[in-house]
Amino acid sequence: MREFWLTAQTDLLESFRAKWFVAYTLVFGGLVVLLFAFGLTESRIMGFTGLSRLMVTYIQLAMAILPVFVLITTVRSVAGDREAGVYEYLLSLPIGLAPWYWGKLAGRFLVVFLPVFLAMVGAIVWGSVKGAEVPWVLFIWYTALLMALAWCFLGIGMLLSTLSRSADVAQASAFVVWLTLLLFLDLILLGTLIRNQIPPETVVGIALANPMQVFRTAAMLLLDSQLVMLGPSAYVILDNFGQAGYMAYAIVYPMLVGTACALGGYLLFRRGDLP
Amino acid sequence: MIRFEQVSKRFRRQTVLKGIDLVIERGHRVALVGSNGAGKTTLIRCLLGEYVCQGKVRVDGLDPRSHRRDVLGKIGFVPQLPPPLKMPVGQLIQFASGVCGADPRRMEAVATRLGLDAKAFRHQPFVKLSGGQKQKLLISIALGRDTELLVMDEPAANLDPDARQIFFELLAERQGRVAMLISSHRLDEVAALVNRVIEMDQGLVVLDDRVADLVDLTSRLRCRLVLTRADDAFARAVTPWGLRSLDQGITWEGWVAGADRLRFIGLLSRYAALLDSIRLDAATEPGLAEVRYA
Which residues of B touch A14 (CB under 8 A)? Predict the structure, then answer.
C-alpha cells in the first residue's frame, strides 16, 4: 500500500508542476468565471434565480472538453514517460507493477477530476454568497456523472498508453477515439443515422454504448425528466430504464468501461516489456 | 548469484539476445563491453525484469519478473542516460528511499561524499541538474542502501576526477560483498574496476575472461608531467583532472585515481608528441612507474 500511495503522490505532484495542468485548471475555472460574467445565472425577467442554468451549461461544456483533455494528457505523460526512459529507471526500483500502475491511475484521477469539481464548488460558493438557491441534488448528480466520465476516459487513456509504443501514436489514437465518440452524439451522426432509416435499435444501441452520449442524456434527464429535447428516443430510454434506472446506468456504465479498459491496460502492461 | 540460462530476446524480426548462458557470483566485478547494438542494455533490462525474454534469468534463484520486490531490492541500478525526471531532487530521494525501505539520509550522505549537496538542491528539478550532478545523484540512490548487486551503465562517464576517485572508494567499500555488472562501450573506461570481462557482439557472449585483480580501488597516484612546450589544448584537457602547472604550462603535477590510470594514460596518448616525461607514483611507493619520451 505504501508503494501505491508513493506512486499516486508522485504522479499528483508531477502533474501539479506540469503546464498542461495549469492550462486544464484555467480552462475549467475560466469556464465558470465566463458563465458568471455572461450572466447565465440570471433570468432576464426574474433576476438572479439560482445556479441551475449555469450548471447545465457548464456540464454540457465539460462533456466536450473533459474527455479530450483526460485522454491527451494521460497518453502524453504515460507513453511519453516510457519513451523518454523514465520507466526504465523508476521501474528498476523495487516497486510492484500493480501499485505502480494503479497508483499512477489514482493520482491521475484526482488530478483530472479535482479542477472540474472545484470549479463547480467555486460556482456554488459564489452563488451562496450572492444568496442564490443552491441546487444540491443537481450538484451531487453532476459530481457523480463527472466522476464517472473522468474515470471512463482515464481508463481508456491508460489502455491506449499501454497499447502504443510511442507517445505520438498514443496521442493520435486518443484523438481518433475521442473524435469517434464525439461524432456519435445525437447532435451529429446519430441524427443522420435516424434520417437514413437505420433501425432504431441500432441507433439506440450506439447511443447507449457511447459514454459521452450516456453522459449527455443523463445530464438532460436531470433537467428535463420527460426528455422532450431528445425526441422519440426518450420513449426507449424511459420505457426500458425509467428515470432512476437510467441515472444509475449513466453512473455505472462509464465506470465499468473505464475499469475494464484500465484493467485491460494493466494486464497488457504486466505481460509486456516495461520500458 | 545471477544465472542466465539460454536467454534470448526478439523485437519483432530482430533477435537481440541469442541464447545467453552466464553465471555471476558475489565478488565478481564484471565489465560488460561491446559495441552499440551488441545487446548489453537488453541483457541488463532482462536482469532487471523490465523485458520479457525466453530462457531463464535468476537472481539468487528468483525470477526478477515475478519476484520484483525481492530481486530489485537487492539491485542498485545506475543508467547510462539519466531519465528526464521533472520531480525535484528531494522528492526523488524520498520516492526512491520510500520504495526501497532505505534511509534517505544515507543517500544524501553518499551524494555529499561525491560532492553533491543534495539538501541544497532539494527543490531543484532533477532534469535541470548538470550531467555530472544527475550521475552523482543516481549513484547516491544506488549506493545509499543495502544492495547485493550493482548494475551500472557507464557510471562514471560524466563524473569529474575527484568524484570518480570517491566513486571508486565507494565501490571498494562494497567490493567483497556485492557483485557488480558495469556496462561500457570501451574496456579501458572500466578495466581497472573489474576482475572479469564479458564481451558481447550481436547478441552473443564472445569473450568471458577473468582478469588480474591487482588494482586497489582506493589508491591514488602522484602524477608529474613535463612537456616540450606549453600547449593550451593540453592545459584544457588535464586541468579537469586536478593537475596544476608549476611553470607556465611546462611542468604539471597532481593526483590521479589508481583505478583511473588507463583512462588517464589514454588521454595522455593523444598528446604524445608534446610529452617529455610522465611520472606516476603510487602514494605510498614513489617511483612505481616512469615513462620517458625522447
Answer: 86-87
Q: Taking CB atoms and an 8 Å limit, are A6 and B98 in contact across chains?
A: yes
In angstroms, the CA B147 to CA B26 distance is 11
- CB distance A85–B99 less than 8 Å? no
* pTM of full prediction above 0.90: no
In chain B, what residues touch A86 (CB-CB under 8 Å)?
83-85
CATH, range B220-292: 3.30.70
Sign of CA pseudo-dihedral B224, B228, B230, B234: negative
Chain A partners within 8 Å of B83 (Cβ): 84-86, 88-90
**Total structural domains in chain A?**
1
**CATH fold label, B2-210:** Rossmann fold (3.40.50)
Domain that holds residue A141: 2-271
| Element spanning A170, H or E | helix A167-183
Cβ contacts of A227 within 8 Å, gap of 6 or more: A217, A220, A221, A233, A234, A237, A238
Per domain, the residue ranges of chain B are 2-210, 220-292
Q: Is B66 exposed, middle or buried (0-12, 13-18, 19+ CB in 10 A)?
A: exposed
Chain A CB within 8 Å of residue B81 CB: yes
The CA angle B286-B287-B293, to the nearest 5 degrees, is 145
Quick: pLDDT tens for B28-59: 889 998 888 889 999 999 999 999 999 999 99
The ipTM value here is 0.78
Sign of torsion over alpha carbons B232, B234, B240, B246: negative
Partner residue facing B69 (CB), from A6, A94, A273 = A94
Subunit contact B138:A274, Cβ cutoff 8 A: no
Q: What is the pLDDT of residues B217-232, one digit of tens each?
A: 777 888 999 999 999 9
Go through chain A and tell me how many residues it has: 275
pLDDT in tens, A138-165: 889 989 999 999 999 999 999 999 988 7
